[in-house]
Amino acid sequence: LGMQLFMGSFARCDDEDIEAKAECVDGWVNKTNVAMAWDSITKSCGPTPGGASYAHSAFTEAQCTGTFNSTVYVERTWKSDDMNFDNIFLAMQTLFEMSTTEGWTAVMYNGVDSRSPELAPKRDHNPPIAFFFVAFEIVANFFILNLFIGIILDNFARLSAESADGSNGLMTKAQVMWVKTQRRLQQQSEPTKADYYPENQTRKSVYKIVEREEFDWFIMAVIVANALTMMMEHYNMSDAWTDTLLGLSIFFAIIFTFEAAAKLYAMYPEAYFSSRWNCFDFFC
């Protein structure tokens, strides 16, 4: 989702006067006034640290005052910030850093300012998008918190189950034996699979195909291949790469549509939607 929303949108031109990517070409002349400073080691007059490359040994320390004009030709470049969503790996790195609450507000501000991959960010261009980052922080931090709580509860359950007489702090010895007996009975009895065999011979043939284990493995392989294809999307893709990914997406969509249509035809809608997995597969 982050790549769909922000891929390439965190990029900007190093020339602040340029807003469009198409205009970020060639170069520009950077004219600045650089303060003079006396270098006691070389006994020369030059700019302050970090200024342009300039030095004049004819000046004395008393004369080394004021400023001079520095003219530098700079090549324009269009590049993204360090934390961005330009490809799957940078997106995962950005989200991981955000989950640690390290600099996540800077990424959120970039998201609020982002416009499109062809335009430089503009301040407060899309404020509602901040809810995406706030929601991620809530989910990520709650997940980590629940992870620690789960470990604590698991250790408590393990310690409470350990006792010399077979009892624990929550159940007597007789109750523990009853629970173990019920668990053994549940493990021995295999649940029966619901039989939705249709009466029509054609539907029955299709049903046998879609209920085979090999068919499930084939669909799972297609899902993995589709996920890998989505991971290959990145910023500044070539036209050939874009057309290839689009063709693969259409191919996978056809397979998923065929799967849903075959199951609906074989199982009837009532039996098909009675399975929660089928509902999730159909609507998501």
Strand order of the largest sheet: 3-2-4
Helix and strand sequence = HEEEEEHHHHHHHH
The share of residues in helices is: 40-55%
Distance between the termini: 14 Å
Number of DSSP strand runs:
5
Structural class: mainly alpha
Give a description of the structure.
- By secondary structure, the protein is mainly alpha-helical.
- Helices cover 52% and strands 11% of the residues.
- It has nine helices and five strands; from the N terminus they run H-E-E-E-E-E-H-H-H-H-H-H-H-H.
- The chain has helices spanning 2-6, 88-99, 104-113, 130-161, 173-188, 201-210, 213-231, 239-273, 276-283, and strands spanning 11-13, 27-39, 44-47, 67-75, 78-80.
- Strands 3-2-4 form a three-stranded antiparallel β-sheet, with no helix packed on it. Strands 1-5 form a two-stranded antiparallel ribbon.
- A hairpin with a 4-residue loop joins strand 2 and strand 3 (44-47).
- Helix 3 runs antiparallel to helix 4 (130-161) and helix 7 (213-231) runs antiparallel to helix 8.
- The longest helix is centred in the last third of the chain and has 35 residues, at 239-273.
- The radius of gyration is 32 Å and the shape is elongated.
- The model is unreliable at 49-55 (pLDDT under 50).
